[in-house]
Amino acid sequence: MNNLKAIFLYSLLAFLISCKNETTYEETTVYKKLEKDFKAELLNTSNALDKLNNAASIDEKKKMYLKARMHFKICEPILAFVDSENYGYLNQPNILKVEEEDFTDIKIKEPTGFQVIEELLFDEKVDEVELTKQVETTAIRLKFLYKNQTLQFLKKHHVLWILRDAINRIALTGITGFDSPVLENSLTESQTVYKSIQKMITLFETEFEKKELYQEWQKEINQSIIDLEKRTFQDFDRYSFIKNRTQKALEIWKETVTDWKVTFPFKQAINYETSNLFSNETFNINYFTDQKGNPVEADKVALGKLLFEDTSLSNKKDISCATCHKQELYFTDGLAKSPGTTRNSPTLFYAALQKGFFHDKRTGSLEGQIIDVVNNPNEFHLSLNDLEKRVIENDNYKEAFKKIYAKEIDNHIIRNAIASYIMSLSPFNSKFDLNMQGKENSLTKKEINGFNIFTGKAKCATCHFAPLFNGLVPTLFKESEIELIGVPKSKDTINAEIDDDLGRYGVYKTEQRKFFFKTPTVRNIEKTAPYMHNGVYTTLEEIIDFYDKGGATGLGIELEYQTLPPDKLNLTNQEKEDLIVFLKTLTDKY
User: Fold this and answer.
1) Which of 548, 538, 553 is nearest to 577 (CA)?
2) CATH-assigned architecture of domain 439-584
3) Is-above-0.70 flag for pTM?
4) d(CA 266, CA 258)
């Protein structure tokens, strides 16, 4: 009897070990297959570029470019996730890259990669010497990746991250022309990306406990591809696509997380619980701050508001944060330039959801921004020690700080509280948001068309990225961009002159950064006139005309490093009108 029991237990143990080994082997095989396919596409991309350089005619070179680009887009979901630096290198815009860490560490890099090749190859007069050089450089980098890249570290949660990033990237940059500025081949390329993630999902079919969920993925991706196939770049309905396709895919993604029993090791910029890109639950506010716990806890926000509105915290006790950021004016002051300063006061709505502050992006956090305001002789004109003393001397604050922070009052927690209040100013309750959330169905055809122009023909969304409509770049949300668009000194279009404000140049004195300014949000733009860093424009019509002309170039101002495409947009009067009515749908109810 004991022998039989021993044999049974041994057999059971052997069976369990066998199952475990089989699972491990199966998982390893899946990831090896994923790596094999990925590296094959890297090689296909570099091979196509080699053939491009060897092609005898420009037409043949163009065909090989499109082929290389297709293979690159197949790689994109994985490459962008596992090696964002090299993905960015290969797919960067054709503008000079300047990296400023401090005064002793400033790097100036010439652009390279696919966008550079595209602009060279499809120019009226092709510079074949430069084209050959760019193609060789890009192919060499791809071959390096082919030899050195591995996916053996991937787990299921990585696969889910890759899928979500790819879906969001298509919606927020892929369909806007962001990385196909000349050919506007964005819809075809987005189809390729969908087919790539569909293949990945198929590879992981055995992970699905609910087989109907796997079928939902297939059905949804097929429909997305169909929607992308039947329209051109100019007439594609991006509003309907994001609302009905992107957000549907994100809902399926959420269900897949549960089905696969995945727990993520840390949080990202976009919350895992959301399937809507236009909600106050979309972004993880902790991603944008070093604060611990909940930075928008009600008591902390209320304390921050009191400090924000307290004039006693300035040197002469005559101004507060609210002096230049009035709630009734959507946290601006309605002036071209704030008193005592040289620049326009930007709205604080959604200010927390970015990675750089002030027009010249000279600080990297809200708390850092507050230091600048406190120390500035033209603003609060106090030291941080003086700020502490003013707060400590005010009995109204003592109990609140003690309750919330349980420590002695210092400038760190004072700034922390004010920052918490600003972090609470991201309502996502505009007409546009409520329609994207499915709470309303009230957008007119003109408003929807305006959004489609914003994200399509007018190319506004290649700098003012949805869903924040500011310069925070999806899908990593690690960088807030600065641009040179060439804002003029006045409205004079005949003898236009560049504004005297040197912008970002004032921070590190980098010549290639003269006249660069941070890309602001256009949310609530209806309520935040006048516009630009110097308040030169007072109407939305003037703003749109400026961009329609091609920025500074269209006004006859030549700037070597202008990042705004100099070409005219050729918007019709109707398109301009629709663009304006869309922008007005971004006004929050506050």
Assistant:
1) 548
2) Orthogonal Bundle (1.10)
3) yes
4) 16
